[in-house]
């Protein structure tokens, strides 16, 4: 039985709200403890990973991690407090990444690096960097950019030189099928362009880069995209590991009938133009999307007037379910 489409108790199709809520990984919270750096909660660690982390030593054979307890007996794993600078902590996380690879927790390094931040201060403070493939083991917030290239569908009148105003709810969206070689959700579908956000690029520069690499979109066209939303949810792997906050920064780009994306870097198998009926059918009962992209497509359908409050009884609750705050397991 597909956990993304049906409830476990019965084969009754889930409502759209339930399909969104089924992606929320906070149901696994009892399997996690906080990950603390310099007294700040920066993520969470699965309990199964704790014995390995406690066995990892840094320079001078000093353990890099230790257990601590906070208010009300809350348990946490902390990085060595003697590592007082961003550079020292980043070197330590590089050692940890090597151990994760040697123990088969992750296959290899990605190359891009994610930051672990103190989110509690008025100014977001970078505490250290960690390889992207290892970051999810520590609950680092995953940030992605998503470009949605769409067409308005106009209806011609009897006159050949005249076109009626487009129906506000009549749009089509270019969708990208993930490559069969992708390590997660191969051959599932994403909106036009999707990519992780590295720390060394601005959002717009990364969006432009990904648009060119994945879909062959010219830089000048990609820069016309409009930032429209940021979605948030706690996500995990299907087995409940690697729980983290996922942020989806979305841009809309209206394109004309001459626009045709094409796969460039091997991450996409093909592109297809899906109309609003197919998009809505997919988010309500399909299983072709990468599961997390259900949020991005639902947000698109709401913003373009396809899913309306008069037609969807859970409209407000769906909106709230797509904007969840980061789970904090430690009080400073």
TrEMBL record:
Classification via Pfam families: DUF4743 (PF15916)
InterPro entries, per the entry: DUF4743, NUDIX_hydrolase-like_dom_sf
Domain spans labelled DUF4743: 18-140
GO molecular function, one term: 8-oxo-dGDP phosphatase activity
Protein name: DUF4743 domain-containing protein
